[in-house]
Amino acid sequence: MKNHFWNMFTNVRNGQLAKRSFIYQKKIILCEAFLKILWDEGFIVGYKISKKNNDLIKIFLKYTYDGKPTINCMKLVTKPGRRVSYSIKQIWKIDSSKNFIIFSTNKGLKTINDCKRLKIGGEPFILIN
């Protein structure tokens, strides 16, 4: 199984290090759900399906006024060799003001604040500082 999330995270990180305004990523449903969360939370400017190739997504990267990327650090918490799952009690112990975590739940990809509001646990995919 290919880890498409890892490839997308690496592409975003490398694109921001190279000061690119946009990057291309292979179109996958889970990656689109992840991009929608990043867009809703203000980490990227936006994304759209490429006109030339319907299998690619064009991701527009966001920077601060002084040219620094909005995403400082992106870490993959759950890996194929090491699965981690948090209950709702464990999620409540995490400080959501310092870390932004995206969870894979039975209701789809949710942010840490959505998991607390809906009172559901899940598998943490990504940690953004």
From TrEMBL:
<keyword id="KW-0687">Ribonucleoprotein</keyword>
<keyword id="KW-0496">Mitochondrion</keyword>
<keyword id="KW-0689">Ribosomal protein</keyword>
<protein>
    <submittedName>
        <fullName>Ribosomal protein S8</fullName>
    </submittedName>
</protein>
<dbReference type="GO" id="GO:0006412">
    <property type="term" value="P:translation"/>
</dbReference>
<dbReference type="GO" id="GO:0003735">
    <property type="term" value="F:structural constituent of ribosome"/>
</dbReference>
<dbReference type="GO" id="GO:1990904">
    <property type="term" value="C:ribonucleoprotein complex"/>
</dbReference>
<dbReference type="Pfam" id="PF00410">
    <property type="entry name" value="Ribosomal_S8"/>
</dbReference>
<dbReference type="GO" id="GO:0005840">
    <property type="term" value="C:ribosome"/>
</dbReference>
<dbReference type="InterPro" id="IPR000630">
    <property type="entry name" value="Ribosomal_uS8"/>
</dbReference>
<comment type="similarity">
    <text>Belongs to the universal ribosomal protein uS8 family.</text>
</comment>
<dbReference type="InterPro" id="IPR035987">
    <property type="entry name" value="Ribosomal_uS8_sf"/>
</dbReference>
